[in-house]
Specification:
Blueprint (H helix, E strand, L loop, with lengths): L3 E4 L10 H15 L6 H17 L7 H13 L3 H15 L12 H11 L3 E4 L7 H10 L9 E2 L12 H11 L6 E5 L14 E5 L15 E3 L1 H9 L7
Parallel strand pairs: 1-2, 1-4, 2-3, 4-5, 5-6
Helix pairs in contact: 2-3, 5-8
């Protein structure tokens, strides 16, 4: 019996071109810190620190701690030198990026239906962004005020996709066995990899990401609307 649903956010509940979004995000962010650090140095440090964070396998340290250490080491800055400026960026500039997304009312309908069906609900977005940035995107998707049992953010998470431990930690947080979960996402590698620990999978069409390497079992697939219909009728992977 399935007890929990894990939903990816970007490209799944919140339709968007993730590559274009990240490109615009970095293009806007770098000039905001130019009075503190050379923009090119900043971006290189940002990308390298993110890579270090995504490779991390230490359960004792949060993604935030790993990123912060790697980023500051590469820029020679102290946290207090740049973090206040980044905080302002996320509060004032980041919300403007909503125009790069295509919110749909189906997201709230799907989450509400999952709640009515008695599922535990996790937003399994890759926790490489601060909580404030993730909650902005939950708000754009229209689900920030809906009943969510768990949301992965980098201040609290210790792993990222596609590490299997990322999915194991979510199941543990929800107090369910991985075999009782369905992972719902648009990424054939980072989301569908959850099948390796026994989770069922649903690939959402529309903004599918496929790197062409590493293939995993897809138990069900369809548009967000088709997902809603299957969830409503207890059919497909939800049977």
């Amino acid at each position: 019996m399935k007890k929990a649903l894990l939903f990816d956010l970007d490209g799944t509940l919140l339709p968007m071109d993730t590559h274009a979004f990240v490109e615009q995000y970095t293009r806007e962010l770098a000039p905001k810190v130019a009075h503190i650090v050379d923009p090119e140095t900043f971006l290189q440090a940002l990308f390298e620190a993110t890579a270090v964070m995504m490779k991390n396998t230490e359960a004792e340290r949060t993604n935030e701690a790993i990123f912060t250490e790697a980023f500051l080491a590469r820029t020679g800055l102290e946290k207090e030198d740049i973090w206040p400026t980044l905080d302002i960026f996320y509060e004032e500039t980041f919300p403007q990026f909503k125009t790069l997304t295509e919110p749909t009312s189906l997201a709230a309908k799907v989450i509400q239906k999952a709640y009515e069906k008695g599922y535990k609900i996790a937003i399994a977005t890759n926790p490489v962004f601060p909580k404030v940035a993730i909650w902005h995107r939950l708000k754009w998707a229209g689900i920030d005020k809906l009943p969510l049992d768990h949301v992965t953010v980098y201040e609290e998470s210790t792993f990222t996709k596609p590490h299997l431990t990322y999915y194991e930690m979510i199941a543990k947080e929800l107090d369910v066995d991985p075999s009782q979960c369905v992972m719902i996402g648009n990424d054939k590698q980072e989301d569908m990899v959850a099948e390796k620990i026994g989770m069922r999978t649903f690939l959402v069409h529309g903004n599918v990401i496929d790197r062409g390497t590493a293939t995993y079992q897809i138990d069900d697939e369809g548009t967000l609307e088709e997902l809603y219909e299957k969830l409503s009728t207890d059919s497909g992977v939800f049977a």
